[in-house]
Amino acid sequence: MPTAVEIENISKRYRIALAASRYRTLREALTDLAMAPIRRLRGSADSQVEDFWALRNISLQIQQGEVVGVIGSNGAGKSTLLKILSRITKPTIGRARLNGTVGSLLEVGTGFHPELTGRENVFLNGAILGIPRREIARKFDDIVDFAEVRQFLDTPVKRYSSGMYVRLAFAVAAHLEPEILLVDEVLAVGDGAFQRKCLRKMGDVAHQGHTIFFVSHNMGAITRLCNRGLWLEKGQVRAFGPVEDVVTQYLASSAVEGCEKIFDSSSEASPGSEYIRPLAVRVTNGDGSSRSAIDMRYSFNLELEYQVLKRAPDLRIGFTILAGDGTVILNTLDTDDPEVSRDPVPGRYRKRCTVPGNFLNTGHYFVSVGADFPMLRSHFLIQQVVSFRIEQTGGVGGHVADGRTGVVRMTLPWAVERLESRDRGKS
Amino acid sequence: MVTEIVPASGWQAINVRELWTFRELLYFFVWRDVKVRYKQTVLGIAWAVLQPALMMLVFTVFLGVLAKVPFANDPLFVYAGMLPWTFFAGAMTNAANSLVNSERLITKIYFPRLAVPMAAVGAAIVDFAIASLLLFLMLFLRGVPPTPQVLLVPMIFVLLTLAAAGVGTMLSALTVAYRDFRYIVPFLAQFWLFATPSAYTRLPTDASPWLRWSIVANPISGLVASFRAAVLGEPIPWNLLGSAAILAGLLFLAGCLYFRRIEDNFADIL
Hints:
The complex is a heterodimer. Chain A is an alpha/beta fold.
């Protein structure tokens, strides 16, 4: 199988200004120029800038048709790698070769102009993505149907809801059919249903034998879509191989050790929106205390403490439980239980979901939590925020350590009945 | 199709083939700029004519009549000079700001970056085309017959475009690197107008050597004067046109080559 992507020793250095802003003014440049000979004579180093290596010695060979999931913590260099492969920025050292047409999706709606109508933006965005005009015209109806915005086609995009905007933007991008596709966490926008739709579409593209690089924090999506995993840490390749192995390694080593995570709601970077902010996420046992090891016989709770800032009648909260290799075990939503009250007034709340005992098998699990307005917008989605272990201390199978495989491990009812024996005569 | 990615190198040639591949994108950028500029305005595309027309009025009344600057009291004379001038100033200023305004695009998707300032110049060409309708009208009303010299107008316009593209492209690259240029450019445009007296008056034949040199050094002077001469059927200042043509070509090359040199760093600085 021909090599689709060859990456040879790619490194990328950024010069970080230690002093304030990134922009330079002429005055600074001129004074620097004037001071340069003096500085060199004195031998003093340039104390104004510092080298930051976003990527170091990345070398990879990707075969055609492979779907590579790129994972790693924030700042590991994932987006930088994609930017280099997309030719948006150049490597400092190293080279790469891409065999095939390249399409990159680093953001949805690149180039969308708020004053233009949906129809006009489809053509503009298509041109920006590199789709020839005739092809856009041919696929126009498919794009509009995928986005479900047909009646709003002739309204300026600035009047669209954020959900419509994202759907239209992704619809155009989804009809780009390059041989090599580079996708960077664009699926982080939109609500759950839309994300599933996008994943499905990307799955179709993968099945057609195209090569895909997919950067995401969503381990469920990564394991479902990809066959190879690339784990980047601090700009270097930490692991590259079959996706289950790489994801398992990543999750096992990641900073998600705790069964409890508290958010600093005062900081700017804390997740949430103007409607709701998460305050804490916990895994607790029956008496309410946080536990990272749960006895498999007993039920346990997933708790979210949050603050409602504005009345939000359609607010929906959900948890996802993932296995140690990133597979999604289940999604649970507060809308599943009609008894739980919704439409909260502003204030602090704690919502709890009870997972029954005698259900999950032993192992290491991760929890993701999110809140959204269904079909409209996501308020926050925090992947792998806490983790817990299910342990066997008795439970099904008795006291003897019983290595049963399987994701779930339940006590199921068995029954026996005696049937009439049939040995009367066998003629 | 194979793409090679290598580290940035110094001077790079203008990749004409790539620009041709992306020609549809260039067209879309121009189309978007023109459409957006006039959406939600009452006068719409009429603004393209109003700008040079109002300048013409101001100059005719205040410079020509009040200040008694020779020749500036004739509206047709002034407009024939204002039209190419407004094109140059508009193209240059819009091109200069185009890169910084397209920050989101440049950091998210790949396309030949030259397309951005070039599209700004393209949008200015559209404005010029509309504003020239007024010129035709004025010529017709005055009964000025078209002479064979009118055939030179396209060539002069191309030279003017090259000059505007060259200066605009260089300024756009400089503005990304040094944000001061955002403030320098409008001032530069104003200053340049006064340094181009042919926009609103005739160049004196008995000028001092100083004056003569400064006029030759400014290629726009020659181009505007030639444009007007060609349109009004007057003798073309060939010397001036010749030196202006060479300078315009050089400006274009210098602007594009400088742009290509620092192009690879745009996404990192923006």
